[in-house]
Amino acid sequence: MDSLHLLLDGFATALTPTHLLWAAIGVLLGTAIGVLPGIGPAMAVALLLPVTYALEPTGAFIMFAGIYFGGMFGGSTTSILLNTPGESAAVVAAMEGNPMARKGRGAQALASAAIGHFIGALVGLTLLVLLAPTVAELAVDIGAPDYLAIMVLAFIAVTSVLGKSRIRGFAALLIGLTIGLIGLDQVTGQQRLTFGSLHLADGIDVVIVAVGLFAIGESLWVAAHLRRSSAEAIPVGRPWLGGPDLRRTWKPWLRGPLIGFPFGAIPAGGAEIPTFLSYVTERKLSKNKQDFGKGAIEGVAGPEAAASASAAGTMVSMLTLGLPTTAVTAVMLSAFQQYGIPPGPLLFEKEADLVWTLIASMFIGSVMLLVLNLPLAPVWVRLLRIPRPYLYAGILFFASVGAFAVGGEPLDILLLFLIGLIGFAMRRYGLPVLPTIIAVILGPTAELQMRRALQLSDGDVSGLVNTPFSITVYCIVALILAWPLIMRLLPKRRTEASEEEKVDA
Fold it and tell me: Which residues belong to any copy of the DUF112 domain (predicted)?
């Protein structure tokens, strides 16, 4: 009941005209940027983070939440219409949504995605309200070895599920950890990787790293692969769902959040995995299996609901443990740090008003998302016709202004483009960006927790695994690392067994 009262207080704050305005701006910006090919909510939050320094924290985080959910929906819009996902979680929407659009059913696909996002957010946020305070209470008793184990799990899980290979995932993680080392040692005060520069003694601001990797890296990548094309956007029409469509979508709308929320709440790399699992589930359970691959509306409804619920689930670990599981929550975590608010178990006690207002604003933003985007679908199609050279030139300009606003030093702009070149090289060689940004944020904290655990054990390495919780987490880490080897051995055993049966026969 305490959570309910706190949530109602959060609604009272979030429903003020000023906060409603920030929520609406966030939803509109997130959807607009998510619609544009190659630009997701992570880049949107990274670009807008320096701009919001003048805002009070509550208004800034309300807008960020709107950008997050709006960007998730916007990515599915461009997936359905142009087969070009604007966000990685929207990849699955293109598998069935784009064939629907080519058949002239783009309106139904967009409506199914919008309602799926609304239901997924509603279910996911309800679970967030019920579970987050409990997780926060349990997390208060977590010590340094346990925190280190959780962060190692986050590193391993993210690098294992993203990218084309684990080696590339770990290489991206190493790049982030190296960037995180730049500056003064937190314990001894010694300079590390500063090359004698006093400006680097404070380290590289997370905002510069995020904007460089996402905005600059993506812009350089698009510029290197820019091709002139005059493809016309697919007309959307008026979105609506008939009786047969509703009968095929209401069950996927309810099943999707149950798959998406748990994956969002644990360090498993965001919404990519649950959206694919939801798609596979709907394909197995559907009575219209012949439609899959040709435009099955279930293949849009379920994964989109799972993606939205996963977005709500990521807030659990970010708010209660200070662990980001997606690029957007990683950038939002840096925003908490910029405002001097340390996310973690005590956040619900020290900043209760901010947290519950943020959660309430997510409910409000979900309603806004549904109300605004159903009639605005034709508008988003027109945004897709902006010439890419003008689009990315604007991104480079605003990224440079934002980087300069962080510290007011020309060196920050140079660092921005150096990190942008690193981001470009990572895309060129298939290295995922998410492990890098998470390593930059969590790396220094993981190092600090490791040193604390070793100090408590007088330098004994066993002090890192001296609690049941840490041992359990490291067992999960070992299972994740050994899983590919286990999967390779299983087919061999099956084939050997089948060959023995043939010989016996």
Answer: 20-437
User: CA 218 to CA 44: how far, in whole Å?
Assistant: 12
Q: 217, 47 in Cβ contact below 8 A?
A: no
Going by C-alpha positions, the residue among 109, 111, 19, 110 that lies closest to residue 66 is 19
Helix 243-265 vs helix 298-320: angle between axes, to the nearest 10 degrees?
Answer: 30
Q: What confidence score (pLDDT) does residue 160 get? A: 66
Cα angle: 328, vertex 396, 52; to 5 degrees = 50
- How far is Cα 121 from Cα 128, in angstroms, rounded to an integer? 10
Which residue in 118, 37, 24, 29 sits closest to 80, CA to CA?
37
Residues in the chain predicted with pLDDT less than 50, given as ranges, are 228-231, 233, 493, 495, 497, 503
Cα–Cα dist 12/393, whole Å: 41
Q: Which residues contact 75 (CB under 8 A, 6 or more apart)?
A: 34, 35, 40, 41, 85, 86, 87, 88, 89, 90, 93
Give the residue extent of every domain in the chain: 2-466
From the centroid of its chain, how far is CA 409? 30
Backbone angles phi and psi of 412, in degrees to 5 = -60, -40
Q: Are 73 and 369 in contact (CB under 8 A)?
A: yes
The pLDDT value recorded for residue 498 is: 52
Residue 244 burial class via C-beta count within 10 angstroms: exposed 0-12, middle 13-18, buried 19 and up: exposed
Residue 51: predicted pLDDT: 67
DSSP H helical ranges for 36-165: 41-48, 57-82, 91-102, 106-139, 144-161
Res 238: pLDDT? 54
DSSP state of 232: P
Helix axes 166-181, 144-161, angle to 10 degrees: 130
Angle value at C-alpha 194, between 189 and 198, nearest 5 degrees = 80
Q: Which residues have C-beta within 8 Å of that of residue 111, sequence separation ≥ 6?
A: 239, 240, 241, 374
Nearest-5° Cα angle at 129, 89 to 62: 65
- Quick one: pLDDT at residue 231? 47
Is pTM, for the whole model, over 0.70? Answer: no
Say how far apart CA 449 and CA 451 lie, in whole Å. Answer: 5
- Dist CA 451 CA 445 (whole Å): 10
Predicted local confidence at residue 380, as pLDDT: 63
The first and second tokens of residue 482, run together, are: 């050994």
Cα separation, 439 vs 149, in Å, equals: 14
The pLDDT of residue 455 is 82
Please name the residues in contact with 183: beta carbons below 8 A apart, sequence gap of 6 or more.
191, 192, 193, 194, 200, 201, 202, 203, 204
Q: Is 491 exposed, middle or buried (0-12, 13-18, 19+ CB in 10 A)?
A: exposed
